[in-house]
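Can't paste images in this forum, so I'm doing it all in text. The chain is below; anyone willing to post the predicted structure tokens underneath?
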Amino acid sequence: MWGLMEPWMAVATALSAVNVVLLGILSTVWVRNYRTFGSEMTAGLAAFAAVLLVENAVAIYFFFSSGMLYAGAPSAQQAVAALRALQTVALVFLTYVTVK
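Text version of the structure:
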């Protein structure tokens, strides 16, 4: 399936998959902290992670099922990959400080 996908969309899909893993880790930590401390802040963080996890999962679905969504403009594909990369960097930092 990767061979049928444009290179920038393959990069965006891979980054979304990394984001799903990082958000899964964050969700696990934050739900556990909420159960331990009952803080509204940790509940909000868990909800934040859940929403972004769903967003990334839906993005992966659309990258595979609707290739035409970004197929017409390589610059749009690069922009999508760049935005996914920025999200990945942000989630790496957030995961690092959360797990630490």
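The first helix runs from residue 7 to 37. Residues 7-99 form one domain.
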